[in-house]
UniProtKB/TrEMBL annotation:
Organism of this sequence: Arcicella rosea
Gene3D superfamilies per UniProt: 3.90.1200.10
Keywords: ATP-binding, Glycosidase, Hydrolase, Isomerase, Nucleotide-binding, Transferase
Reactions performed catalytically: D-maltose + ATP = alpha-maltose 1-phosphate + ADP + H(+)
Name used for this protein in its record: Maltokinase
Length: 527
């Protein structure tokens, strides 16, 4: 790994003109950035062999009496792949004595005879306020190349355009960074950048501007770097801030504690309140899909058929994923020590032919259901629980897919499968607790977990489909619904197998059981 070689940066040039100091930039790229970025949670390349860090663009944003630079840092890896990251930076003079979170301090610096620190500007209040001001006034800031275009969405309240507002960084470490304004607005600054509009902005803006669906945080604005001859690059998006108790992964986990207590006391009990919540989430999910089903919409959102090219895409994707996961599983098989997990792995490996044959149905079966833009990475962690309802967030799409693939239309059943898998995870993870595993026979624990899962799955599916009413062009008939659900459940569980092998080996059993559940259903269809 590349290490930092200096403690401070020096320049005789004023900070506002710092781009002219090529020597400083060179130093920054070689000696400061690698060390700093490797400490950041949002930098996804930590485990890879890094070759270089280059500031390929530095967009200028005026801030109170100074300037912040929205740097686009291009990271090149040894295998030749590159990634672009957004790093906003500003210089804070020591005499201003600002209280900056230690993780925001990039380096000490002497700039134009002034001692200070170069910081990640999200921690600099001047930057926070400037961004809010530009969003509120929907300004364009001209750059050496193109402009930074700030837009204001329907979710931005007129009363806030000129009113003072407090700002702070949300202390949640995730793949992006968030600044919160007056507990009213949530601004996400994207860290990993893509040379196309981020799907999240497309989706949130579309739902806010073209439907009455109120269960996403309304779109309040975005900032985009636009250059005539190149695709737009989305830098950030602002939504209304949602007061929430927790996400539904946490909520479901808490409810499952009651279920586990009942099980320990030898009874099977799911509170009526739990079924009501599952139904409400299913209803909101269906309503989100109805908001996205807009036959009069522009091309990006108009519903499409299961044409040949989509069928081929879906089939290729599933079979490629299967190839990758079979190889990964074979490579890691000896690390699996648990007998039950080994047996599940065997069941999966032995079913390759059956799965391939079933997957070929994607190419050959008549499918008259339609497809639309969907959430794409839908699970319990992507839904915030408010006092009495749910708010759906994080429309960035599947983390492993390219931006172009994330914008492909699917049957909304793919989202449903994501959520059903998540319920399966919730009960399975809970049942892995030592207090249960050590006390009860594995077969009995599995039977009880299956029973919980089947009831919840059925409750979700029934309410989801009822909300659409029958028939609906998105779901031609039950045969298609069942076939597509199995395909998407399989795809998701096979994807998850990779995630668990790489990040949570103790949980490998969960997606394997999900895959084997699908195999058993396929076998039943053949009988
Ligand atoms: N509009 C919002 N209002 C309040 N909190 C939010 C909002 N959007 C996201 N969050 C919080 O920020 C966390 C990260 O948001 P998410 O959209 O998942 O970002 P990332 O893309 O960084 O994963 C969420 O789990 C939630 O706690
Ligand atoms: O939320 P991300 O987009 O980062 O998704 C990744 O991490 C998820 C875990 O946080 C992972 O989700 C899997 O585990 C969840 C429980 O932790 C479960 O609710 C999901 O159903 C399951 O897929 C996701 O697969 C991964 O891409």
């Amino acid at each position: 790994m590349i290490q930092s070689k200096i403690n401070s940066l020096n320049s005789k040039i004023a900070w506002e003109k710092i781009r002219a100091d090529t020597e400083l930039f060179d130093n920054f790229e070689k000696n400061v950035l690698p060390a700093y970025m490797n400490t950041c949670r949002w930098f996804a390349g930590k485990a890879r062999i890094q070759k270089s860090f280059k500031v390929t663009t530095a967009l200028e944003i005026p801030i109170e009496e100074s300037m912040a630079l929205l740097m686009i840092v291009t990271v090149t890896y040894e295998d030749g792949e590159i990634e672009n990251y957004l790093l906003p930076v500003s210089f804070i003079d020591a005499s201003h004595n600002k209280d900056i979170a230690p993780k925001g301090i990039i380096t000490l610096a002497y700039i134009n005879n002034k001692r200070g620190i170069i910081v990640d500007a999200i921690y600099d209040e001047r930057f926070q306020q400037a961004i809010f001001y530009h969003l509120a006034h929907a300004e364009n800031i001209e750059q050496a190349k193109g402009k930074v275009d700030f837009t204001r969405g329907k979710g931005f309240l007129g009363e806030d355009i000129n009113a003072p507002i407090s700002s702070r960084v949300l202390p949640v470490d995730s793949s992006n960074s968030a600044i919160v304004f007056g507990d009213k607005y949530f601004l996400k600054l994207y860290r990993k950048l893509f040379t196309e509009t981020n799907p999240e902005v497309d989706m949130v803006e579309f739902i806010t501007e073209h439907s009455n669906f109120a269960f996403i945080p309304a779109f309040a604005g975005s900032l985009v770097w636009k250059e005539d001859l190149n695709p737009d690059i989305t830098l950030g998006m602002m939504q209304r801030m949602v007061e929430n108790q927790a996400d539904t992964w946490v909520q479901t986990g808490e409810q499952l504690e009651d279920f586990v207590d009942a099980f320990m006391a030898k009874s099977f009990s799911i509170k009526e309140e739990v079924f009501q919540q599952v139904e409400l989430l299913a209803q909101r999910t269906a309503e989100m899909h109805l908001a996205l089903y807009n036959t009069g919409a522009e091309k990006m959102f108009v519903p499409e058929n299961f044409d040949e090219s989509y069928r081929k895409f879906l089939h290729d994707r599933l079979t490629n994923l299967l190839d990758k996961r079979y190889n990964l599983l074979i490579d890691n098989y000896t690390k699996i020590t648990d007998v039950v997990t080994r047996k599940l792995a065997w069941d999966f490996m032995e079913a390759r032919e059956l799965i391939d044959e079933f997957a070929d149905g994607i190419l050959t079966k008549p499918i008259l259901s339609q497809r639309i833009r969907i959430h794409g990475d839908y699970h319990l962690g992507q839904v915030l629980a408010t006092k009495n309802d749910y708010i759906i967030i994080d429309f960035e799409g599947e983390p492993e897919s390219s931006i172009t693939d994330r914008k492909i239309k699917h049957s909304p059943l793919k989202d449903v499968a994501g959520m059903i898998r998540s319920y399966h995870y919730a009960i399975s993870a809970k049942m892995l607790k030592d207090s249960i595993v050590l006390k009860f026979d594995a077969h009995r624990v599995q039977t009880v977990a299956d029973r919980w899962y089947k009831l919840i799955q059925q409750t979700f599916m029934d309410k989801y489909l009822d909300t659409f009413g029958h028939p609906h062009p998105l779901f031609k008939n039950n045969n298609e619904i069942n076939f597509l659900m199995l395909i998407y459940l399989l795809e998701k569980a096979v994807y998850e197998l990779g995630y668990e092998i790489n990040y949570r080996p103790d949980w490998v059993k969960i997606p394997l059981k999900g895959i084997v559940n699908v195999i058993r259903e396929i076998e039943k269809l053949k009988m």
